[in-house]
Amino acid sequence: MWSSMLTDALGIKLPIVQAPMAGVSSSSMAAAASNAGALGSIGIGALDVPAARTMIDAVRAATSAPFNVNLFCHAPAQRRPGVERAWIDRLTPEFSALGAAAPGQLSEIYRSFVVDDQMLAMLIEARPPVVSFHFGLPESAAIRALQQAGVTLIATATNVVEARAIEAAGLDAIVAQGWEAGGHRGCFDPEGPDEALGTLALTRLIVQKTRLPVIAAGGIMDGAGIAAALKLGADAAQLGTAFIGCDESLADQGHREALAAAASTVMTRVISGRPARCLVNRFTAIGSRIPDETVPDYPVAYDLGKALNAAAKARGIHGFGAQWAGQGAPLARSMPAAELVGTLARELEEALK
C-alpha cells in the first residue's frame, strides 16, 4: 500500500487518480477505479442537479471507497449576439454539407457551479468524499460549507499563481495540469496569457512554491509516467486519456476509434469556446483557420459544436466530436478500468525499483 500525505488523507491505496472526464467517466468507471485502490472520479459539470445526484448515488452504491466529484467553476458566459450570429453563419455550410440545418440561436447549455446554489445544496446533502473544481474556484462561502460537510476539496491549476490562489482559499490539494493534458485547460481566465507549462515543470514549481499536496496531470499514461511525477514531489498522478478506452468509458465508438489510431492532438477553442486538447479531426481542422476572438464564450459555442457533431453522427461521421485526449494518446490501452489500475500499479512498482 502506497503512503503519502494525500493518499493517507483520502484513504486510497494507490497514488493514482482516474480523471473526472465529463461525458466519458461513468459511475461504473469511477467505482471500479476506486475499488481497485485508485481515486475514481465523475464529472458532473455538464449535468443538472437531479442527474448529478443520480450519478453520485450510483457510484456510492457500487463502492465503499472514496471517490471524487468534479464541477466547473467558469465565469458565466458573456452573451455577444453579433458574435453568436456570425458563428452560426460561419458554420452553416458545414451543416448544409451534412444535409442538416444549423441552429437558429445558441444557448448557455451548462450552469457554472459558482452560481448554482441548488447544486451546492445537493452536494452538502450527498457529502461525496472528494469534490474537485475546474476553471477556477467557487465563492469562499461555498468552500466553507463543503468543508463543514466533511468534503475534501481539490482544484486545478495551470500555473503557480492559480496554485497559490487554491492554497489561499484553504483547499486540500492541487491538480497541476500541464499543457500536455487532454480536455479543457483549467485556466481561471481563458482570455489571459497562458504560460503553457508542461506537466513536469509545473509539478515541480507547485511543489516548491506551495505547501499543499500536488497531483500531477497531463500526458501521463503508464506507471513510468506516474513514477516520474512522484519523483518530482507529486503525491499522486491523475490520468484521463489512459481511461478513455476502458470498457466502462462513455466515449462513443468514433472517439474510441480515433484514440486507437491517434497520431496527434491539438489545442482548440472552436468546439466549446474554451481552449481544450483534442485529437486532430475535421472540426479541429476547421478551427485552425478561425481566429479565437470570433468564437462565442464557453459554453455557448459548445451548443453549436454539439449540434454539428450530432448532425454528423446521424450520417455516420465522427470527425466533428469533442474527442478530447492528451499528448500521450498513442500510448492508450483498452481494458476494464480495474485491470488498468492494477497494470499501472505494477508498472509503478517496477519503475520505482
Assembly of the depicted chains: single chain
User: How much strand content do the residues show?
Assistant: 5-15%
The level of helicity is 25-40%
Level-2 CATH architecture of the largest domain: Alpha-Beta Barrel
Task: Identify the CATH class of the largest domain.
Answer: Alpha Beta
The strand count comes to 11
- How many helices does DSSP assign? 14
Structural class call reads: alpha/beta
| Order of helical and strand elements | HEHEHEHHEHEHEEHEHEHHEEHHH
Low-pLDDT residue intervals, each spanning 5 or more residues: none
Q: What is the CATH T-level topology of the largest domain?
A: TIM Barrel
Outline type: globular
Tally the structural domains.
Answer: 2
In the sheet with the most strands, the strands line up as: 1-9-8-6-5-4-3-2
Q: Output mean pLDDT.
A: 97
Question: What do we call the CATH homologous superfamily of the largest domain?
Answer: Aldolase class I
Q: Radius of gyration over alpha carbons? A: 19 Å
Task: Give the distance, in angstroms, between the N- and C-terminal Cα atoms.
Answer: 15 Å
Describe this structure in words.
The protein is of the alpha/beta class. The chain has two domains: 224 residues, TIM Barrel (Alpha-Beta Barrel), CATH 3.20.20; 94 residues, no CATH class. The strands form two sheets. An eight-stranded parallel β-sheet has the order 1-9-8-6-5-4-3-2. The protein has a three-stranded antiparallel β-sheet with strand order 7-11-10, with no helix packed on it. The longest helix has 17 residues. 54% of the residues are buried. The mean pLDDT is 97.
